[in-house]
C-alpha cells in the first residue's frame, strides 16, 4: 500500500512540476521558481524511497527463494529413506505377481501347450 501511495505522490508532484515548467522562465515569479526547486527535491527523495523499497523487496524475495531451496533440499534428504521403505514392499509384491509358478499354465500358452503342462502328454486323459 505504501508503494502505491508513494507512486501516486510522485505522479502528483510531477504533474505540478510540469505545470510550472510549462511557464516560460521570464514569466515565473520568485515563488514559482522556489516551488519548482522544492518539487524537484521532493520528487528526488520519494524516488530514492521507492528505490529503497524495491531493493528491500528484491532482497526479501531472494532470501525467501533461498529458504525455499534449503527446505526442498532438507525434505528431499529426509524423504529419501521413506521412499525406499515404501517402494520395497510394493516392488517385491509386483515381482512376485509377475512371475507365475512353473507348474501352472500361463495365459499366453496355446491349447496344446496347456495340455502338455497338465499331464505331459499330447492327449490328456483328464481333459
TrEMBL record:
<protein>
    <recommendedName>
        <fullName>BMERB domain-containing protein</fullName>
    </recommendedName>
</protein>
<dbReference type="GO" id="GO:0015630">
    <property type="term" value="C:microtubule cytoskeleton"/>
</dbReference>
<dbReference type="InterPro" id="IPR022735">
    <property type="entry name" value="bMERB_dom"/>
</dbReference>
<dbReference type="GO" id="GO:0007026">
    <property type="term" value="P:negative regulation of microtubule depolymerization"/>
</dbReference>
<dbReference type="InterPro" id="IPR040127">
    <property type="entry name" value="BMERB"/>
</dbReference>
<feature type="region of interest" description="Disordered">
    <location>
        <begin position="85"/>
        <end position="110"/>
    </location>
</feature>
<feature type="domain" description="BMERB">
    <location>
        <begin position="1"/>
        <end position="73"/>
    </location>
</feature>
<dbReference type="Pfam" id="PF12130">
    <property type="entry name" value="bMERB_dom"/>
</dbReference>
